[in-house]
Amino acid sequence: MTQLNVLYEHASGYALFYVDSQEDIGALLPVVVKSVREYSLFASTVKLISFSPFKSGLNALENINAVSEGVVHDDLSKFLDTHILKKDKVVLGVADPSLSSEIKAQLKINCLANEVVIELIRGLRVHFPKMVQGMDLKAEEKAQLGLSHSYSRTKLKFNVHRNDNMIIQSIALADQLDKDINTFSMRVKEWYSFHFPELVKIEGDNFKYCRLVDAIGDRLSMTDDTVDTLEEITQDSEKASAIIIASKRTMGMDISPVDLVNIGFFCKRVISLTEYKHSLVEYLHKRMVSVAPNLSALIGDVVGARLISHAGSLTNLAKYPASTVQILGAEKALFRALKNRGNTPKYGLIFHSTFIGRAGLKNKGRISRFLANKCSIASRIDCFTDVPSPIYGEKLKGQVEERLKFYEEGVKPRKNTEVMHEAFGLYSAFVAEQKTDPWKDSAAATIKKEETTEAVIKTEKKKKKKKSLAPADVNSSVVEAPTSEKKKKKKKSIAPEDLNGSAAENVSEAPTSEKKKKKKRKAEEIENVATETPTKKKKKKQAA
Predict the structure, then answer these.
(1) Is 8 helix (H, G, I), strand (E, B) or coil?
(2) Average pLDDT over residues 140-147
(3) Structural contact between residues 59 and 75, judged by C-beta atoms closer than 8 angstroms
């Protein structure tokens, strides 16, 4: 008879329980349902084998992330290996089917995930603090609250492309604004048509119509000077002249100033909403270029954003096959066709792209299938690439254009391998340009800073030396004023070439210059002796 054990993943650790029952596992369901509410009955059937608490909050977070993803953590594998010795005679009850299949594949333990196990885990959630020693309700609440906060934080941070949430919100807001602007502009047309009904036939655009109503106001106050303002709004001189002519021949009734003021306020609100919608479209374009550049280059910003929002995220869209992307947004038509055994839809949200509109009736399904294939490739590149760029999207768009020409004119398109090789070469060059080594830049910056600081220090030292030498030079000039004429002659006799000579020549001529100095000294001594002897003789004669 097989023994049923139950694995319970608590916020504070792993727990393994033993189900003490002589009945088969399939017949345990009514017994378990009765014993869930009463602790005494539940404790008699379910008993604790072992409890392994988590070491820290980070360890608990790692284990819970692994459990949520259906991966067996090292702590869980060690816990099961130590406490389940006879794996052939044990059936392990696990709540998550993906985790149970992973345990069976890695640890070779027979696992079970059915209604009996779910009811047992429901009872363990209720009575767990009583079955483990040292566990209180307050401690359990603290552990669950802390782990839930950290788990939700990591899930938000784990989403690498979390900016796609902004895309989802912005495209939803843009669609809602489109509906609201249409309803509000229809209300303006109905309201103002009592006064000037011919204006609707002249100008059909909602935004321009509201601007015209705000500019015209009372039709009786219109003059020939208002033609310029009407031309600025309509950007057509014929429409402006037609409006003036229609205002004179209109069938509308007169309107009070209070009603005109209210209509003007409402028109200004509609104008502000349309202007905000234009700014929102620009913001959506920037977000799509940064998050999914290839998808936006291939199919456009609005259609790409609708695909991401319908899938839930960019990662979900990347996981979808091309057949799912093709009919994404046409789920009702698909299930209706499957129910009635009719023809399934050929396209969903992709229908709003220009490629399907340009294709013929016979080729719409073929081009939608081809476009969905390229959209799935572009979404996967955008989701898993490190350096985003629209290079692949532009090449994929070129492939769709070539396929359209092939369907219409019969021009043979290029092979996929050639296009992808070309795109890969351009992308690798783009990545080489984008990636720069920040350590090199910082090292060069520090070297430049050190060089500048050294130069500044040297200049300051030179200035200090000049200041300190300035009084000494003055004193030396005063002392050396009555010098002999011989020194002056020597200074004059020095050639300028010797002063401006290079350091290498001075070094090479050093021994020869010393010899010349010695000869000059000897000649000067001989001249001094010759001059001293006649002066002595003259002194002796004068003394005699």
Answers:
(1) strand
(2) 88
(3) yes
